[in-house]
Amino acid sequence: MRDVVPLAPQPEEYYAAIDLGSNSFHMVVIKVVAGSVHIVGKVKQKIRLAAGLDENMNLDEASMQRGWECLEAFSEWLADIPKQNQRVVATATLRLARNAEEFIARGRYILGCDINVISGEEEARQIYLGVAYTSQTLGHTLVIDIGGASTEIVVGEGFDPKQLTSLNMGCVTYLERYFSDGLLSQSNFDAAIAAAKENIQPVAEMFLPYDWQQCMGASGTPQAIVEILVSQGINDSIRLSYLHELMQQCISIGRHKDLNIEGLDESRKQPFPSGLAILIALFECLNIDEMQISGGALREGLIYGMLETREQHNVRVQTINSITQRFDIDACQAERVEELAKALFKQVPKSFWLVGFDACGVLDAAARLHEIGTHIEYKNSHLHGAYILNYLDMPGFTRLQRDVIRDLVHNYRQSIDVKLLNGYQPRIRNSLTLLTRLLRVAVILCIRRSGQRVPVPKLSLEGDGTLQLQFEAGWLARHPLIRIELANEAWLQHRAGWIMQVS
Predict the structure, then answer these.
(1) Which H/E stretch holds residue 65?
(2) Domain locations in the chain as residue ranges
(3) What region holds the Ppx/GppA phosphatase N-terminal domain (predicted)?
(4) Element (H, E) at 143
């Protein structure tokens, strides 16, 4: 019997993007399958290239050596990827360094491909596109990326960056400049914030006239802050009050080497105080109310730019379709639940929903994915589903949206875990509570899993939160299964502290 050799993936299915940043070097490798993008590799190494700049703006030998050693590792990945599917860019530090060509020349030799030193404006543009490709944008969107030696600010709409700038300030250069004594003092923070504001204020007028609907953070500092908030039980956007609280926590600790904040990863500790100071200045100068975390940045912009598919697909739709196929979700049933949930949603007055939260979008996603846990087994499918979604990559959705989708799936059936809802701030909790109730009703109404028409009940909401569902006369009497399930649901919602009336 002849051995069966599986077909090897075609090399042209793989793409790689490398970002030689001032703080870290990043590489992402993706595979394109049936038009869908799947990340198959991510590598990040802290190089702190910007820390190697001396007073004459020359890179020292040690920092260059760290960079070259990292590129040696990256080169193994690139060896199996077609040259036309590779893109390598360098940013702020290699724009500034007088001896940058020495580093780049050897870097080209190591990688076997070109390294492009891009301008600050091009970096800002690619960052914005990376956010637009991977995160659903609503109207005008403000995007901020705090790098090691530069900070990019962009406002755009859809895939069109309308205003952008790159400022020479970053978490590594500010660490060396304002926290070099190792102290986390009020005076050090004040000096860093004042310097950042001096950089931001001349360009603030370029961005303030835009009435942006959301602000997205595309760098390590906002990501670190969200990780801290989540670990401390705060499911919310980044707000200026949280930034000031974190600054006071740093100051109370006193010394950088002792920095130990719950949720702050070891790898993020070194540049955290300086990045925090820059972010406070950005919030105050640009009047930012809240910030979400984006799904991508520079590397994703480079990848999708090579694919040239941004006009042909919706990232969220692609994500949901890919997950549906991967976990063998019954797409017809999911679509039935989604349509019914959406019909109920449309009857809720807009005043009940939090502005900018995209409640409809997360409800659609949860409805399409609510049965993902049946891939494991049925009895605890809602728990399995929540576990899967907690660790699943979901391009097109912010971290907060992913958390909401996960908890909607956790509560789509059986007893309601109110503790999950209580982990959110009241403004989000109210929306999530109502979404949970709508999804549960939609699932019940589609319980027969058939194409038979299910009438959408008339929905009304009282000021005390009472949810009323009114069906066509006689319909419930003709459908005892759904009538019994709705009666049980009314009891489960009562146990959760909610009132649901069905007639």
Answers:
(1) helix 61-78
(2) 11-118, 121-299, 315-454
(3) 28-308
(4) strand 140-146
Residue 205 CA: distances (Å) to CA of 124, 135, 202, 210, 242: 17, 26, 7, 9, 25
426 alpha-carbon distance from chain centroid: 21
Residues 67, 22: Cα–Cα separation, whole Å: 10
We find that the CATH architecture of domain 121-299 is: 2-Layer Sandwich (3.30)
Q: 425 with 290: CB under 8 angstroms?
A: no
Query: Domain 315-454 classified CATH 1.10.3210.10?
Result: yes
Q: Which two tokens mark 8?
A: 């090897």
Q: 52, 176 in Cβ contact below 8 A? A: no
CA distance 98 to 104: 12
pLDDT > 70: percent of the chain: 95
Quick check: do 11-118 and 121-299 share a fold? yes
Q: Check if the beta carbon of residue 407 is closer than 8 Å to that of residue 420.
A: yes
Distance from C-alpha of 167 to C-alpha of 199, rounded to nearest angstrom: 7
Instruction: Give residue 308's pLDDT band: very low, low, confident or very high (50, 70, 90).
Output: low
Q: State the average pLDDT over residues 280-291.
A: 95
State the Cα–Cα distance between residues 117 and 91, nearest whole angstrom.
Answer: 6
Closest-CA residue to 141 (of 279, 310, 292): 292
Q: pLDDT tens, 334-353?
A: 999 999 999 999 999 888 88
420, 411 contact by CB (below 8 A): yes
Give the Å distances, CA to CA, from 199 to 94, 192, 273. 20, 11, 18
| Paired tokens of 346 | 């449309």
For residue 118, what are the contacts with CB-CB under 8 A and spacing of at least 6?
89, 90, 91, 126
pLDDT computed for residue 150 by the predictor: 92
The average pLDDT across 57-72 equals 95
- Architecture of domain 11-118 in this structure: 2-Layer Sandwich (3.30)
Q: What is the pLDDT of residue 4?
A: 46
Print burial letters for 54-74: b (CB count within 10 Å at least 16), e (below 16): eeeeebeeebbebbeebbeeb
